[in-house]
Design brief:
- This protein is an alpha+beta fold and 667 residues long.
- The chain has five domains: 88 residues; 125 residues, Four Helix Bundle (Hemerythrin (Met), subunit A), CATH 1.20.120.160; 56 residues; 181 residues, 2-Layer Sandwich (Heat Shock Protein 90); 145 residues, Beta Barrel (OB fold (Dihydrolipoamide Acetyltransferase, E2P)).
- The protein contains 21 helices and 21 strands.
- Strands 12, 13, 14, 15, 16, 17 and 21 form a seven-stranded mixed beta sheet that branches.
- A hairpin with a 2-residue loop joins strand 16 and strand 17.
- The protein is globular and about 100 Å long.
- It starts with a helix and ends with a strand.
- The C terminus is likely disordered.
């Protein structure tokens, strides 16, 4: 190495270190990080085999800066990166060390260098965050907002460096081409033309596919390489302006939503150093142990109370019960993550649906920092995909029709998340045409879902959109029209112990409100007894308790029994008849539990209400699920016996015993 070249590089590092130590603020530190990235690129030929070490350190630094690392931590990591680059420069005259990049083996795959496995693992945390930042900036540009161009360029530059260091040369070249493609607009402050936005979104899709291949490759020891040739060849001219809609070749739509970025991505908590990554199987094992502890504590406490306790011991038992509950809630809360990654993917879903239907769509979101169980965040991607497709294809009008109605040409979707008590609420609304209740009722009559001549209220007709095979679409498209999407939404929401409500106003739009328990494995329940057997009712679905005197009930012919209470006629269902098939008429006074689910109401006849309990939900095996209709799961009670958790949606929908189809109505 020539002395003047070494001197110039050393002087550059000294200058950057002096600037960094002056604490120039976050923006200044980010600028120094980017300058160091340029330094590493320029120094690569002179660093020889040690260039890989310097580039890897700079890539991690840039990824942390892009992910929002706190200023103090960013300054510390920057100084560390400067030291690493200095050490690489000092050892540049030593014998070259092979660059730590994996070597290609068979065509289309890459053998993993075991020394780089920790780097690949770190990339799986940082890469999706950078990708989400790119996609959010591109979706903003699709709505003519150029402010995210700088974020897009920085994320792309960082990903290019990481892919190059890891030996993923195809992705490195694709990022380099995309970066070159942005140079014309980077300093002009102009939004990208539509054709370029669509091409860059396709780039994001390939990058996501390669990141997923890396995740699979860590287990197999070989990473599949994603082919980039076709997309690189389809790159539009830098000056091409495809307008708001681009006729890209459309692949068949999948029935599941794209993979989500990590829940601690952009918009999440500040900086990765504040987090501890824990394997999912270890977390599941911990949750299982906490559940068993809760069951054991309940059994021990109940046994001690039955044996008779002195006041001091009784106080400690109550304290143990309180501590056990706090431990349960704390451990279960470890799985709670922000729903922001789901919102980021929803923006892409809406954009793609708009492209396919020729409609300009903008999705706004609120409440992305609301937390939910990580598994539920992932599970909600599929129903949200179907709801967005339905809203865009059926709900939103075409631009010309919207203009004639005095609406903005760009259709508006609003995605909101919030906490209500111990529930999580997700709401998707649009400003489109609303539900066509007449068309829904006609379809319902044609399919035998409604009875001719029967008075139909709006709630009943609205629920028809969730029936399998029912669609009011005039034409079949690749987005909808088969009558299966909304049915899939209902099934998925039900599997997550949730409920869904629909609000619609003709010509003004429609809203879908999904409600779920925050934590699936822990539930507040109401314990009831029926002929010696105990059942658990979800407390969120219990409205009130009524004295069910047979003298207050009435029956029309051989139809179901009804109970009059406060001007409300509610169908009666004897749980003894539901589970035992016992057709004996109920006698005397029992307790009627007023419950509601999925827009239906009814009264369950029980012998006794035993009180509220917090129970650990246990799933049923496949065989039991098939044989126990109306049972959602089980809970081990304080005496060691099992109480069945009732699925009120099934019970109220199908009726049983002395009741027919349920559906409360005003008398």
């Amino acid at each position: 190495m020539l002395d003047d070249e070494r001197s110039q590089l050393e002087h550059g590092l000294d200058s950057l270190e002096a600037q960094a130590r002056q604490a120039p603020g976050r923006d200044g530190l980010v600028a120094i990080c980017e300058t160091l990235g340029d330094w590493a690129e320029a120094a690569a030929p002179l660093l020889g085999g040690r260039s890989g070490l310097a580039k890897a350190e700079v890539s991690r630094l840039l990824a942390g800066a892009q992910a929002g690392r706190p200023t103090e931590q960013l300054q510390e990591r920057l100084l560390q990166a400067l030291r690493t680059c200095g050490e690489a420069l000092q050892g540049a005259d030593a014998p070259a060390v092979p660059a730590p990049a994996p070597a290609p083996t068979a065509a289309g795959s890459l053998a993993l260098n075991q020394d780089l496995v920790p780097v690949f693992q770190e990339f799986l945390g940082e890469g999706p965050q950078l990708l989400a930042s790119m996609e959010a900036a591109l979706l903003a540009m699709a709505n003519q907002d150029p402010r995210g161009l700088g974020d897009l360029s920085r994320a792309l530059h960082t990903l290019k460096g990481i892919f190059g260091f890891l030996g993923l040369d195809g992705m490195n070249r694709l990022c380099h081409s995309a970066e070159d493609h942005l140079q014309g607009q980077l300093h002009g402050g102009r939004a990208l033309p539509g054709a370029q936005v669509e091409w860059l979104l396709k780039v994001c899709d390939l990058l996501r596919e390669q990141i997923q291949a890396v995740a699979h490759g860590l287990e197999s020891g070989s990473v599949a390489l994603v082919d980039t040739a076709a997309l690189a060849a389809a790159m539009p001219d830098a000056g091409a302006d495809g307008g708001g809609t681009v006729a890209w070749p459309l692949e068949p739509l999948a029935d599941e939503a794209p993979a989500l970025p990590p829940a601690d991505g952009p918009g999440g908590a500040p900086g990765q150093d504040a987090f501890l990554r824990v394997r999912a199987d270890k977390m599941d094992a911990l949750l299982e142990l906490v559940g068993e502890l809760a069951i054991c504590q309940s059994q021990v406490g109940e046994g001690l109370r039955d044996a008779g306790l002195n006041p001091a011991t009784a106080g400690e038992v109550e304290r143990l019960d309180k501590l056990s509950r706090q431990l349960q809630e704390t451990v279960l809360a470890l799985r709670l993550v922000p729903v922001e990654p789901l919102f980021l993917r929803a923006g892409r879903m809406a954009h793609d649906a708009g492209q396919r239907t020729g409609k300009a769509v903008e999705l706004r979101s609120d409440g992305g920092d609301t937390e939910l169980d990580k598994g539920m965040v992932e599970a909600l991607a599929e129903p949200l995909l179907h709801l967005i497709r339905n809203a865009v294809d059926h709900g939103l009008e075409l631009a010309g029709e919207r203009a004639a109605l005095g609406k903005p040409e760009r259709g508006q979707l609003l995605l909101q998340a919030r906490r209500e008590g111990r529930d999580f609420v997700l709401e998707l609304s649009d400003d489109g045409r609303g539900l066509d209740l007449e068309a829904l009722a006609a379809k319902g009559l044609a399919l035998g879902l409604l009875r001719p001549g029967e008075e139909q209220d709006q709630a009943r007709v609205t629920q028809l959109i969730f029936e399998s095979g029912l669609s009011t679409a005039r034409a079949l498209t690749d987005l909808s029209g088969r009558g299966v999407g909304m049915d899939a939404v209902k099934r998925k929401v039900g599997a997550l112990k949730g409920s869904i409500q629909v609000r619609s106003r003709r010509g003004q739009g429609c809203a879908f409100v999904l409600r779920f328990p925050l934590i699936l494995s822990l539930m507040e329940g109401v314990l009831v007894a029926v002929e010696g057997r105990r059942y658990v009712l979800p407390a969120a679905q219990v409205r009130r308790f009524l004295a069910a005197d047979s003298a207050l009930a009435h029956r029309v012919g051989n139809g179901p029994a009804w109970l009059e209470a406060d001007g409300l006629s509610l169908p009666l269902l004897d749980l003894r008849g539901w589970f035992a098939g016992d057709g004996r008429p109920w006698q005397g006074r029992k307790v009627a539990v007023h419950v509601a689910s999925e827009g239906r109401e009814g009264c369950l006849l029980v012998d006794q209400v035993l009180g509220r309990r917090q129970v650990v939900v246990k799933g049923l095996g496949a065989g039991l699920r098939a044989d126990l209709s109306g049972v959602a799961g089980g809970a081990i009670l304080g005496d060691g016996q099992v109480g069945m958790i009732l699925d009120l949606d099934v019970i109220l929908s199908n009726g049983g015993g002395s009741a027919a189809a349920m559906g409360g109505h005003r008398g």
